Amino acid sequence: MNLIEQIKENAKKTRQRIVLPESHEERTIKAADLILEQNIADIVLIGTHESILSSAKKYGLKNIEKATIIDPAKYDKIESYANMMVEIRKGKGLVKDVALKLLKNPLYFATVMIKYGDADGEVAGADNATGDVLRPAFQYVKTLPGISVVSGAFLMFLQDKEYGDNGLMVFADCAVHPNPTDKELAEIAVATSKTTRSIARIEPRIAMLSFSTKGSASHDMVDKVVSATKIAREMDPSIKIDGELQADAAIVASIGLKKAPGSEIAGKANVLIFPNLECGNICYKLVQRLAHAEAIGPVLQGMAAPINDLSRGCSVEDIVDLVAITANQAIGSK
Ligand code: ACO
Questions:
Q1: Which of 191, 83, 204, 75 is nearest to 143 (CA)?
Q2: How far is ligand 1, taken at its centre, from the CA of residue 184, in Å?
């Protein structure tokens, strides 16, 4: 069974309530139908009964009646949701009228639903930009204790099985936080170690990447990675991590031995942490295209509840896979 199949099977054992706020969107409602057919998760759709059921009819979907459909305009908890929003963001000047207006936006409604405990996770982004999906999550679901930044990891399935664990590697941050400090970079490493265990299902060996290996160059950018490595070790002494390492020293055994002798990570890394988002985003796309790797993600990490953002070019199958991953994150966080 491949990794995604295992993730789906695990999701089926403890069905989580995953909210899909973009119910008006064709791929999303088709994915909801498949998820319900395969019993991967319980699905909450935000929208009117009429529009959702008429889309289901239009596309010939047979399972949508098993979804929980919530129409915010007729929802009896709307006042309680607005009160909770005001409580969370009164320091930012949020008043109830504005909260009620925000709840008309399904992306806000979905995250508040999770915060209130009425759903376990969310998948959106087939029809909305990353920032629009993430902002409500940052504001209401917020980050895990001890973590201040959300980041995005990719599972990279390489053709060349000599790298990582039989070709599987995890890259981060490739999606969210443009320019992390040393402390934030350490948090990204620690969060990625958890994603690697719970979703990639391999034991992480983390390389903190730079353009320098063990002092071969000196620059503020190198210092940041060295400091982040130290902080990550303090945050979680159990993780196997080393840095600063160049990419070749991290993944090629003979180069690791030469440039970083004695390192337990050099030459054997299966997790690559990039010093900033430019590196991470550019590298994962290059590896995906030039090395024909399959890239699954971004799996968002560090959030207090799992919320994942789709690419607007996603397929129905991508949405089904991301819902299964989100359900696994929800199971792991309980
Ligand atoms: N983790 C946790 N909270 C965050 C983060 C983060 N990484 N970034 C911002 N926040 C919080 C802020 O603290 C703030 O909270 P507050 O309102 O309580 O004070 C709130 O979110 C809004 O902060 P802004 O700085 O105004 O953030 P903004 O909403 O403008 O931007 C965003 C956040 C959209 C994620 C931005 O960092 C961004 O555009 N990142 C790049 C995303 C991207 O384009 N990725 C590449 C494409 S994805 C791909 O290729 C797979």
A1: 191
A2: 13
CA–CA dist 50, 36 (Å, integer): 19
Q: What is the dihedral of CA 183, 274, 312, 308, to 10 degrees?
A: -40
When pLDDT is cut at 50, 70 and 90, the band that residue 332 belongs to is confident
Residue 96 CB coordination number (10 Å): 13
Q: Is 119 in the pocket of ligand 1 (CB under 6 A)?
A: no
Q: How far apart are CA 230 and CA 241, in angstroms?
A: 9
Does the beta carbon of 177 lie inside 6 Å of ligand 1?
A: yes
pTM to 2 decimals? 0.92
Q: What is the pLDDT of residue 1?
A: 65
Q: Return the residue whose CA atom lies nearest to atom 17 of ligand 1.
A: 139
Strand ranges of the sheet holding 42-46, from the earlier edge strand across to the other edge: 68-70, 42-46, 17-20, 121-124, 307-309
pLDDT tier at 254 (50, 70, 90 boundaries)?
very high
Residue 223, token pair as written in the block: 């210092």
Token pair of 90 as six digits: 């009164």
Take atom 42 of ligand 1 and give the residue whose Cα is closest. Answer: 176
Residue 308 has pLDDT above 90, yes or no: yes
| Rounded distance between C-alpha atoms, residue 109 and residue 32, angstroms | 18
CB distance 176 to ligand 1 below 6 Å? yes
Cα 180 to middle of ligand 1, angstroms: 12
The strand pair at 294-301 and 151-157 is best described as antiparallel
CA distance 199 to 206: 16
At 192, list the tokens.
């990625």
Give the pLDDT score at 333: 83
Task: Give bridge partners of residue 309 from the DSSP assignment.
Answer: 124
Distance CA 24, CA 59 (A): 12
Counting every residue written for the chain, the total comes to: 334
Residue 154 has pLDDT above 90, yes or no: yes
What lies within 8 Å, CB to CB, of 47 at 6+ separation is 23, 24, 69, 71, 106
